[in-house]
Amino acid sequence: MSTPATYGDYRSVPDRDVEDGAVDHNHDDLAPPTRWERVRDTTTHIINVLFIPLLVVLSVVIIVTLAILLAVRPHTGTPGTTPTHPGAPITIPPGAHGGKWDQVKLPEFIRPIHYDLDFATLIDGEFNSTFEGHVVIRLNVTQATDFVVVHAVELNLTDVTIADSSKADQPALAPIRHEIHTGKQYHVFVFPETLAPADTYLLRVPYAGTLTRDLRGYYLAKYADPATGDAKWLATTQFEPTDARRAFPCFDQPDHKATFAITMHTQPQFHALSNMKLVETDMSIPNEDQDFTKNPRAKSYKFAPTPKMSTYLIAFIVSEFEPTGATTKRGVSVAVWTQPGQTHMGTYAAKAAAEILDFYEELLQIEYPLPKLDLIAVPDFAAGAMENWGLVTYRDTALLIGPSSAPNNRQRVATVIAHELAHQWFGNFVTMKWWDDLWLNEGFATFMEFLGANATEPTFELDAQFYRSEQVRAQLADASVHTHPIHANVADPAEIETLFDAISYAKGGSILRMVQHHLESNGHSFFAGVTKYLRAHAYGNAESKDLWTALSTPEIDVNALVAAWIHEPGYPIVTVEQVNATHLKLSQERFLNFGADKPKAHVNWQIPFSFAIYSNRTGTPEPLGHEHTVLLTESETIVALEGAALAPLAKKEHRFIKPNLGQYGLYRFAIPEAMTETAAEWLVQAPTFLAPLDRAGLIEDSLAAVVAGRTEKLAAALNLFQFLSAEETYPVWGAALSRLGGVHALIRLDPELVAYRQVVTRLLDAAVERIGWTETNEDESTWHVRALLRTELLGFASSIGHEPTIAMAKSLFKKMVKHVPVDAGLDVITKKLKIVPALVPVVVNTAVRTGGDNEYLSVEARFRAAKLINDALVFLTALSTAQAPHLVARSAALALSPAVRSQDTSRFLAQTAGSAVSSTLVFDYLREHWDAYLAQFGQGGAFSSGVEIWETIAGNAYSTAARDRVEAVGKELDANFKQGVAKGLESATAAAKWRAVYASQVVAWAHARLGEVAVAVE
Ligand SMILES: [Zn+2]
Question: Residue ranges of the Aminopeptidase N-like N-terminal domain (predicted)?
Fold first, then answer.
């Protein structure tokens, strides 16, 4: 899966705690179920206990009646079947023992070989949409058993039978007992006779269920008819990690792979899609005297059997969507499916997907195993996208773009497609054995998405972007005491869902990139090992160690290299000290946020540590000798250098050491303060003496050390910002803006802050002037990254109070209000204002943040009138920047209203809570409306829980009183929200302590810089 869209990246940077992972913009796409669901589960349980016998009788009657009414074709049944009434179900509540099977995992001795799945879908509005059918599962029983276990949740299972297909003369058996384990989500069928080992059993389970608005299992999604505006519905699936069991009874565990032959029946106005190609359709409408459009078996679609695969990757969709296509070099057909009338928005994705598929086939030397690939934009979608084999589902913002879409939207589409297509090999072709290795899927897809998207968009400079968007993101999340090891033991579905986080994705991807670089710089091919691993486990399952073994060489034991990175929480910082002219001391320890207690056990990571020494002996800074690499395995390592490498030859000569060349290693570094001062001076004198990523890494790690309280004097690190006036590249500005904003966030209510703001706005002056609001004859090869830089730089400048930028934004806003119709798209606005599309957010954010009711209401009207979701999100995000209390309250109420799609509610609320003042207001609002929030999320947004909102609210609690208030309320919340509060409070408390020690130093530094400028002007 991939994470939800991050459409608010350039909003109000300084109002946020960029530090300490307090606000993780790319937050988990999955989180534990909300309280509402748990309440519902309990209710279901009570109903089961009290009414099951009655329900069974009733449901049999209802299904028989439905079958007649809906013209269900009678199933032919297995030869010899005598349908029997099953034993009355017994409900076994969570935690209880005594049932036939209550282990976390399914029994090993009953495995599925093949599923024949045949079902009909009736789409009839929000409350009457249903599905029903039957599954016949061929089983391999390897140990005598009198019971069979399958997963199923909120499905009616009736008339279950099992038969040995090799013994046609024997009648099928019906269970004598039917246990339902609500906690483990098992149905256990106990049969009157023992089943001897054989691989010829056919388990037949008729079932029926309801299409919900839960965004999981088999669910309903809604969109508006473009012509009439009426609600239209489609039925779609989201099974990862454990929700296939909500759509059909199955062995819902990643290592219980099988083949699937799927037949779907739909009403005449719909068509069906699934993982495989269609082999047969039947459009003859049986029983034409019935209500034609309500006949769920009017049309039939039979799909080719799948290869051996896991249940969580099955998908089926019933919709009226339309395709636009492309073909790969090898002839695989690629189609992007959109709402009717929007296919032109899918042409970019279709072309990109075909090119990326070609690239992966070439790189991995393994053909994409299916004959087709469908990509579909689902209007209500919890994650960013889901890699179902051959039928990938996307949030529409992650798949659809028009010719005038902003560069960041285009990049998101390319990278999300590349992420999901990487899963077709990493996850689908070879699958993790159990969820504790989820990172193997997600880390790989994250690592590969940058390579895949680069194949179709080489000017995006994605390799350089990896550092900030994944590695730094991982380092921020993993510096918390609340982090977890990548390899985590998990049991129940709620625990599994918590693993879809920055650790599995970003840390996992960063470790793979580090291993790749280490192997390749030692002359080994990383991808040869990867191909070996994929081939060895084709259509099967694997564990982390299988990959490391395949990557290892006689010289490099990759298992040992990655052990601590995978099994320990956190990551190291390497401190560089000069022992004498010829020796360096390198020591490692875990890097933690400010104020965190030192961990009890010392961990040694294996660190491929690289560095280069620079000197200014010729007058300009330049490297001295070659690059060095040493594998650190101990807590301290003394490194001997050739010659007197660290002994300056002349009086004015200085030395500087840059560790982690190219920032390939997932560690931070600390160098002696004098060297940081040297680097700050040299960068002003020769801004490009270090490569861009080395400049970015120097800023990032030096400032991280400042914020973590690892330096006594902040001035040396803050002086690194001084060269920015001359900086032109996106990776360096990206790192700098995050850190400039981070320091601002830490002291944002300090009365002396104005001096810091002045210094920062002066640093921005030259760059803002250079980049401007319009494009002028720019080189195509750098257009994209300059566009990203422009958006981020101007957005930051506006939010930190850069007057010329604010004035420009406000005047453009006035022009827009006066000359652009309220329902015009971003393309029209940009044409009228003569600016690039990505700057519209800067214009509207500035207007709302610095304005009052008029600006807010004007933007709200555009949000409500927007025709495209990307446009609507730009206006919605702007509303979250309002500062006046009554407008913040209005935004909070808007979040819970039907105007905001449930997939966007939590993110918008978190954004609205993004400042110290607004977080208090959102907090008050949520306390009053928490039940409404939970109720809505049960209906439409089960995955997007409020963890992010609580983390933001708690993270922005500036005063002790505010933190106490949040803490008190946090105690009343469910565990997953509590976790959000705990993370937020950790960073808010650390920030308060940090301020007490360091705020005066920041202010003094700012005054000193302002003094220098004043002297220079005189
Ligand atoms: Zn993924």
Answer: 112-313
DSSP string, 266-304: E-TT-EEEESS-EEEEE---S-TTS-GGG-TTSEEEEEP
Report whether pLDDT(877) > 50: yes
Residues 6+ apart with CB under 8 A from 478: 21, 502, 503, 507, 569, 570, 571
Binding residues for Zn(2+), as ranges, are 419, 423, 442
Partners of 303 in the beta sheet? 278
DSSP secondary structure code for residue 703 in this structure: H
Tell me: the pLDDT tens digits for 526-538?
A: 999 999 999 999 9
Compute CA distances 456 → 21, 386, 451, 453, whole Å: 32, 21, 9, 5
Which among 867, 866, 795 has a CA at the least distance from the CA of 836?
Answer: 795
* 265 within 8 A of 257, measured Cβ to Cβ: no
Beta strands 430-432 and 540-542: pairing type?
parallel
The pLDDT of residue 12 is above 60? no
User: The domain that contains 292 carries what CATH number?
Assistant: 2.60.40.1730
- Which residues have a beta carbon within 5 Å of ligand 1, which is an ion? 1-2, 442, 445
Nearest-10 Cα torsion for 173, 174, 177, 180: 120
Q: Which domain holds residue 979?
A: 885-996
229 Cβ partners below 8 Å, 6+ apart? none
Domain closes at, from 411, 439, 462: 411
Rounded distance from Cα 735 to ligand 1 centre (Å): 25
For residue 238, the CA-to-ligand 1 centroid distance in Å is 13
The binding site comprises 419, 423, 442
- Whether residue 799 lies inside any domain: the answer is no
Q: How many Å lie between the centroid of ligand 1 and the Cα of residue 783?
A: 29
Domain count for the chain, please give it: 2
Distance CA 397, CA 376 (A): 11
In a domain, 972, yes or no: yes
CA–CA gap between residue 634 and residue 705 (Å, rounded)? 22
Cβ atoms of 432 and 438 within 8 Å: the answer is: yes
Closest CA to 630 of 616, 644, 617, 612: 612
Q: Is residue 892 part of a domain?
A: yes
Residue 402 lies in a domain: yes
How far is ligand 1, taken at its centre, from the CA of residue 441, in Å?
7
